[in-house]
């Protein structure tokens, strides 16, 4: 990798109104590219990865191979399409919301914000369930105490998390960002540590999912799309990534540079994630993975309960708790900002200026009550991913970019590519997956 920024090329940047600016050579790899590659890498590997092995292995070797083949193209082509519609926009500096407003108008941007909020907030609710289950499992299985009342435990956890982020949001975000790489290192360490526990006999051809539920192999593979889209999603990071590349390398070189960074980053991401998935699946039988799904636990919590290994017993649930906490707080911050904007804008549309304190109080009350109720009722985490989170992410990450490329004139240069067909089909299949439960 070459971090020398001395060599420059002259590129005409449309934002400079005809003036010439000097930009780094986009064909070379610079220090900033490494920084952004690691940022994408850290963002892409989140707590959602802790639930991927459960679905990946419960269907046997066929589902595992299917995800292995699908992982990179799903991640690369969908996020490339998302990046394209942003850096082609004159409002790219305003992120995806400004881009949607430019392409489709104010009403469309409002609808997008609502869908985007539902997408993020469903994940917040899901992680409130995961946190409660992780804490409860740790108290019972590792500390050997009686299981605490779920209503009290879930309320304490939700109030504690909300108190942390409201005590100092900026500090909290920085601390959570610092935990990204230790979490990834921990996943790699656990993956290696589990190698002596690998058994090829765990890789059956049918798995437990198809046998126990009676669903067809095709139906089982169909339901893998939401978890794959969810696990590898990091679309909120694409806007700042694109904005920075456009400012650094110029508009003409942004496409090439984004593709270059994303390709190498996603190869590294898929390698790490799939190593963790394979290591987890080879260490547990398909029946164990089905039990993890029934118990509504992350793979790390179940591993700590199932395998009596010194490091796994205590380290795995703690890593899971920290990872899920980090993801909860990160998504909460995003959901809070979107909800705040929606409330303020809706008030202004009716000629009312809502006070900031009133908005914050309303949001806090809504978050606490909904997160507490959801954590208490303990809905299936994988069910939420399959029926809500995965399809909503697919709408934003796959269907929206493909619709924009087809309809917006400035994006016409991106039409006619095979990858467009792949992303479109991916989006449709994932969205339709939420309807499968009705059949």
Tell me what you see in this structure.
This protein is an all-alpha fold and 439 residues long. The chain has one domain (27-438): Amino acid/polyamine transporter I, CATH 1.20.1740.10. Helices cover 74% and strands 2% of the residues. It is built from 19 helices and two strands. Strand 1 (8-12) and strand 2 (20-24) form a beta hairpin. It is globular and about 60 Å long. It is a multi-pass membrane protein. This is Serine transporter. Keywords: Cell inner membrane, Cell membrane, Membrane, Transmembrane, Transmembrane helix, Transport. InterPro entries: Amino_acid_transport_2.
How would you summarize what this structure contains?
The protein has 439 residues and is an all-alpha fold. The chain has one domain (27-438): Up-down Bundle (Amino acid/polyamine transporter I).
Record the SSE blueprint.
Elements: E1 8-12, E2 20-24, H1 31-44, H2 52-58, H3 61-87, H4 95-104, H5 106-142, H6 150-167, H7 169-178, H8 180-193, H9 209-213, H10 217-222, H11 224-232, H12 238-249, H13 251-283, H14 286-294, H15 299-306, H16 310-349, H17 356-377, H18 381-407, H19 418-432
Antiparallel strand pairs: 1-2
Helix pairs in contact: 1-13, 2-3, 2-13, 2-14, 3-11, 3-12, 3-13, 3-18, 3-19, 4-5, 5-6, 5-16, 5-17, 5-18, 6-7, 6-17, 7-16, 8-13, 8-16, 11-18, 12-13, 15-16, 18-19
